[in-house]
Amino acid sequence: MGMLLTTAAVDAGDRVDFWRESLHTMFRAECQVEPRRESPFRAGMSADNFGALNLVDIFGSAFNIRRHGMGDDGKAFVLLQLEGSCIVRQDGGEAWLTPGDMCVLPVAEEMEIERRDSFRQISLNLPAEKLSELCSGWERLAAKTLTGNIHCAGILAATVKAMLDGRGKIEEAGRSGLGDAAICMLGAVLNTVSGREPLPPAAREELPSRLESFHRERIKRFIRDHLCRPDLDAAMIAAGVGLSLRYIHRLFEKQTLRLMQWVWEQRLTNCHQDLLRRKESGRSISEIAYAWGFNDQAHFSRSFRKRFGVSPRSV
Fold it and tell me: What span, in angstroms and rounded, lies between the C-alpha atoms of 267 and 283?
């Protein structure tokens, strides 16, 4: 996880000032913060970088913010509402956001956010020029509600949430590609709303492959986390990552190893590595096999010999 700022350990009387300073640290913003209720004020945010895309997960109690400009007028950001509701006002525009909705905003402009209840939002911060490359004139959509009922907006929201939920396990080498894929999806959302050509040809060709790579990495991470379970199968994997069984099979159909072949390869590879260290660990062959999801010793021995050309005992 990247930078984390929270009022949890701050005295109640100092929390508003702490949060104002935290917003300045995170966004270089001068803000007025006004709690809406008498209950204790609370707020927090964590930030993670995915290449050109910075994701900030923001949560807290009900409060209003008035922002007075930003330090970097080359940026833009998108607010994605996950929980609660809010009103965003900027330059005469007004966006009402409920869970699944989003709005896009130029960073350099003044803005007001009215959060009416406990909330969770994700702020997608990125260079404005990248949005201009994908959707010319995107500024006309500033402070307008982009409803979650737009299918591609729902896909973007699910992807961004998955990126944050899995941020601790996403390999550093893949972060930039995931960020670029999310930015391309954002361009598709803005073009859908504006009625323009969805994406430039190069981006249209690139987006599906990046999205598929992203989901394949999610699937592989889920498999690694549950490899020890003998009942791990395609249906469990599909349910675990929130994708259809047909889609996850399609994601692997052109790969060197199909879905369940990849599962067995991981199990056998891990067994082989542990068998090389068996004398040090003192574990038996059966203990190692069961630890990686095999529940039949004979089946494990046959599979191992077929994969490595030797029996487990010979390693």
Answer: 16
Angle at 190 between CA 238 and CA 84, to 5 degrees: 65
Q: Amino acid identity, residue 44?
A: G
Q: Are strands 75-83 and 102-106 parallel, antiparallel or unpaired?
A: antiparallel
Q: Which two tokens stand for residue 25?
A: 């640290």
Is the domain spanning 4-194 CATH 3.60.20.10? The answer is no
The predicted-structure confidence for 223-238, as pLDDT tens digits, reads as follows: 999 999 999 999 999 9
Tens-place pLDDT, residues 16-59: 999 999 888 887 778 899 998 766 899 999 999 999 999 999 99
Q: Are 141 and 194 in contact (CB under 8 A)?
A: yes
Q: Cα separation of 197 and 312, whole Å?
A: 58
Q: Which CATH superfamily is domain 216-315 in?
A: Homeodomain-like (1.10.10.60)
β-pair partners for 86: 97, 115
Assigned token pair, 286: 């059966």
pTM of the model: 0.61
**Whole-number Å distance between alpha carbons of 170 and 164:** 9
CA distance 102 to 123: 9
Tokens of 154: 């729902």
Q: In DSSP terms, which residues pair with 77 in a beta bridge?
A: 105, 125
Which tokens hold the place of 48?
């993670």
Tokens coding 174: 């893949």
Place of tokens 């109690």: 61
Are the C-beta atoms of residues 105 and 88 closer than 8 Å to each other? yes
Q: What is the pLDDT of residue 305?
A: 95
In this structure, what are the phi and psi dihedrals at residue 96, rounded to the nearest 5 degrees? -100, 120
Q: What is the CB neighbour count within 10 angstroms for residue 17? A: 11
Q: Map out the domains of the chain as residue ranges.
A: 4-194, 216-315
As a whole number, mean pLDDT of residues 266-289 equals 93
CB 118 within 8 A of CB 83: yes
| Cα–Cα distance measured from residue 26 to residue 89, given in angstroms and rounded to the nearest whole number | 20
